[in-house]
């Protein structure tokens, strides 16, 4: 999941070197914290949050295959 999120984010932003994903494992779920450069926040979130929603949908769909719950947080 972490690699998938990192790949998607790096494909969207202007500064792919600034993209980092932190994985926090809980008892029943995994939280992926995505950090990007301040100037690239709009590209990752999109108009009315559409891109962020699409990213979350893709990552959650991949997690279902492994019987895990994943939450994606975009951190500034």
Overview features:
three-stranded mixed β-sheet; alpha+beta; 3 helices; GMP Synthetase, Chain A, domain 3
Mean pLDDT: 93
Succession of helices and strands = HEEHHE
Widest β-sheet, arrangement of strands: 1-2-3
CATH architecture, by name, is 2-Layer Sandwich
Q: With helices defined by DSSP (H or I, 4 residues minimum), what is the helix count?
A: 3
Strand content: 25-35%
Subcellular location: Cytoplasm
Subunit structure: Forms a complex with KhpB.
Main location: cytoplasm
GO biological process, one term: peptidoglycan biosynthetic process
Structural description of this entry:
The protein is α+β, with helices and mostly antiparallel strands and 76 residues long. The chain has a single domain (2-75), classed as K homology (KH) domain (GMP Synthetase, Chain A, domain 3). It is 42% helix and 26% strand. The protein is built from three helices and three strands; from the N terminus they run αββααβ. The chain has helices at residues 2-12, 41-45, 50-65, and strands spanning 20-25, 29-35, 69-75. A three-stranded mixed β-sheet has the order 1-2-3, with helices on one face. The longest helix is centred in the last third of the chain and has 16 residues, at 50-65. The relative contact order is 0.24. The mean pLDDT is 93. One of its GO terms (cellular component) is cytoplasm. Forms a complex with KhpB. Keywords: Cell shape, Cell wall biogenesis/degradation, Chaperone, Cytoplasm, RNA-binding. It is found in: Cytoplasm. One of its GO terms (biological process) is cell wall organization.
